[in-house]
Amino acid sequence: MLNFTIKIAKKAGDLLLEKSKKPLKITKKSARDLVTEADKKAEELIIKEIRKKYPDHGIIAEESHTHTENNLQTLKKAPYIWIIDPLDGTTNYTMGLPQYTVSIGIFKNKNYTGSKNFDYLEGDMVLGVVYAPALKELFHAEKNKGAYLNREKIRASKTSKLMDSVVATGFPYKDKTVNLPYFSAVLDKCRGMRRFGAASLDLCYVARGCFDAYWELGLKPWDIAGGALIAKEAGAEVSDVNGKQLDLFGADILTANKNLHPKITKIFKSLP
Predict the structure, then answer these.
(1) Which of 73, 75, 146, 251 has the fewest CB atoms inside 10 Å of its own CB, making it the most exposed?
(2) How far is residue 40's CA from residue 86's CA, in Å, rounded to a whole number?
């Protein structure tokens, strides 16, 4: 599935680049959360290609509602689930900034747990592709096969002191203040802080060693599915902000090189 996933990510990325040359049609999902015609067209392209090649696979996608089986009762029947963000970094895109991506992750179903009050899928992320078309950066990873940027292998950094590190974060649209305690706790303990505005790209930049760590709260599965696997395959630790196993539906993520991850989780656990 790797070559096919790369192919459709590039096709969607080319569409985004072409749309960016013309005036964008922008609407709002909320006061701060934007969506463009390009988001929707890119997602339609990706879903159409998947449906054609893998009709029995499930899809979780950010913008689609009528074509996306966004419930576990349906998804449990699928051998694989495609988790898609057709345009991660929409605000950057609308402002002419190059930090935006097409992000695709593939989840392999193993077990389904269902009850009156609880539904959950168990399985593994087996493939991730993140394509930044304006930067011409294509990241990919397959489970247990390493992480790559433009087909060249990449590795997370080895920085051991938090004071020598450059870390990245983001702030959720609904409540930006929720991240302030975490931000304040790390700001004076690191060398520098960055905020790119595209979670998938932040994860990939940890994978390639540009960032030593990254965390964010208030996320969705499509924000992190592809990038989380890429970071992990590059040798970074990936968890929730408390150091526990990452839950794609858990809304928060922390990834850092193996030297810094326990130090940052210790800081976060000490927060009130």
Answers:
(1) 73
(2) 8
CB–CB of 209/154 below 8 Å? Answer: yes
Which residue ranges form the domains of the chain, and what is each CATH number? 2-154 (3.30.540.10), 162-269 (3.40.190.80)
User: Under a CB-based contact definition with an 8 Å cutoff, are residues 214 and 167 in contact?
Assistant: yes
Angle 221-233/199-207 helices, nearest 10 degrees? 0
> How far, rounded to the nearest angstrom, does the alpha carbon of residue 124 sit from its chain's CA centroid?
15
Facing residues of 136 across strands?
Answer: none
pLDDT tens profile 124-165: 999 999 999 999 999 999 999 999 999 999 999 999 999 999
Q: Which residues pair with 142 in a beta bridge?
A: 127
Rounded CA-CA distance 79/30 in Å is: 34
Q: Could you give the 3-state DSSP secondary structure of residue 266?
A: helix
Residues 6 or more apart whose Cβ sits within 8 Å of residue 130: 9, 101, 102, 103, 104, 138, 139, 140, 200, 201, 203, 204, 226, 227, 230
pLDDT at 27: 64
Cβ–Cβ under 8 Å, residues 203 and 241: no
Are 224 and 255 spatial neighbours (Cβ–Cβ below 8 Å)?
no
Q: Is the pTM of this model over 0.85?
A: yes
